Amino acid sequence: MDVVSGGSAYARAGVDTSQAGRAVAGLVSVLRGIDPGRPSFSVVPSGHYAAVMRIDDRTGIALSTDGVGSKIVVAEQLGRFDTVGIDCIAMNVNDVICVGADPIAVLDYIAVEEADEERLRQIATGLRAGAEDAGVEIPGGELAQLPELIRGHPSPTGFDLVGASFGIVALDALVLGDRIEPGDAVIGLPSSGVHSNGLTLARSAFPDLQERPSELGGRSAGEVLLDPTIIYVKAVRELLASGLDTRGLAHITSGGMLNLLRLHADVGYRIDSPLSRPPVFDLIAERTGAGEAEMQQVFNMGCGFCCVVPEVQAAEAVALLGARHPGAQVIGRTTPDAGVVELPALALAGREDGGFIPA
Predict the structure, then answer these.
(1) Looking at the chain, which residues constitute the CATH 3.30.1330.10 domain(s)?
(2) Which tens digits make up the pLDDT trace of 249-259?
(3) Cβ-contact 187, 314 below 8 angstroms
(4) Rounded distance between C-alpha atoms, residue 359 and residue 349, angstroms
(5) Between 22 and 317, where is the model more confident?
(6) CA 63 to mean position of chain CA atoms
């Protein structure tokens, strides 16, 4: 049973994840058959957070690409463009570090309806802030003027923003999840809110972005939705350099805790002490009619990143990670039930190909 299907709140808002999943499978099935005419340099099977290409016997380059998505619509409607660049950097570098790589650069692609100097300056302000937070460079990029393809909300403010991140990793230091064992601790790092996934559903809950629901503490809905995605790179870099046994790293995006199943581990995950959820998620659920299973699959629900370490090292890892991300805590443990994510407090269990259903 796929709980996020054509009859879901997300599909009613315009995104059918079941259809998208089938489309991606068709795309990947073709691309997987590419014959470059030489032995492959790839060392990580597809499906993880980043690709890794071998450049010599010791070193690999980690690669990832992602965009900001329909969060851009919120920026256009509010006329505020200085934060989405942070999201662009975050969505890329948070993926690259999941294989244990050190992100070093991001390239940006900006497609615009109109090349407005002030809007581009604001976008660049966010890109710079995100790059400095992640400790990466932006050595190049591309600006495309595409008025026939890009239409703003309102016109002519339309744009799209995509990045590609590059990192360096020692091949004997890859973190893929293959050393995870049942009983390991899963540490959750708090998110700032919606981040950059599920914005189509989130926006459907707030047709008036200037609305200030009491649940949001006096802030407008638009302000809350524009809160930038947190960049976890510095904390994870410190964890990797600490000597602690970092066995798995997972960026929690669309798919929620099911993202843990992207790790190459023959285990399951029991999340019995989840992080508290920001109130924006309860408002989205209430106003869109999205059930708990769907919310857990569409959004991060308050946890933006997970680290898996041996149980005996959990307290030390929490202290280290919490220094940069207050509220970090052990949210659960790995189990022998491979391929299953359990959310016992919600009586839900999920698999990667089926979403969350009642346990």
Answers:
(1) 48-173
(2) 999 999 999 99
(3) yes
(4) 5
(5) 317
(6) 15
Over the stretch 238-289, which tens digit does the pLDDT of each residue have?
999 999 999 999 999 999 999 999 999 999 999 999 999 999 999 999 999 9
Using CA atoms, how far apart are residues 268 and 343, in angstroms rounded to an integer? 11
The secondary structure element, H or E, covering residue 305 is strand 303-309
Distance CA(259)–CA(296), nearest Å, equals 11
Mean pLDDT of all residues in 95-107: 98
The whole-angstrom separation of Cα 157 and Cα 70 is 14
Span 60-76, pLDDT tens digits: 999 999 999 999 999 99
Q: Residue 165 has which token pair?
A: 């991140």
Q: What is the mean pLDDT of the chain?
A: 95
- DSSP secondary structure letter of residue 42: B
**Confidence band for 1, pLDDT divided at 50, 70 and 90:** very low
Tokens encoding 192: 């700032």
Structural tokens at position 225? 């939705």
The answer to whether residues 359 and 265 touch, using CB atoms and an 8 Å cutoff, is no
Identify the three-state secondary structure at position 109.
Answer: strand
Q: How far apart are the C-alpha atoms of 168 and 96, rounded to whole Å?
A: 9
CATH topology of domain 185-358: Phosphoribosyl-aminoimidazole Synthetase; Chain A, domain 2 (3.90.650)
pLDDT at 7: 66
User: How far, CA to CA in Å, does 16 sit from each of 10, 39, 129, 194?
Assistant: 7, 37, 33, 19
Domain 48-173 has CATH 3.20.20.80: no
Query: Which amino acid is present at 79?
Result: G
Quote the CA–CA distance of 166 and 131 in Å, as a whole number. Answer: 12
Residues 67, 97, 292: CA angle, nearest 5 degrees: 60
Give me the sign of the Cα torsion angle 180, 183, 189, 194. positive
Determine how many CB atoms are found less than 10 A away from the CB of residue 31: 9
288 DSSP β-pair partners:
none
327-354 pLDDT, tens per residue? 999 999 999 999 999 999 999 999 988 8
What is the Rg, in whole angstroms, of the alpha carbon atoms belonging to the chain? 20
Angle at 1 between CA 189 and CA 284, to 5 degrees: 45
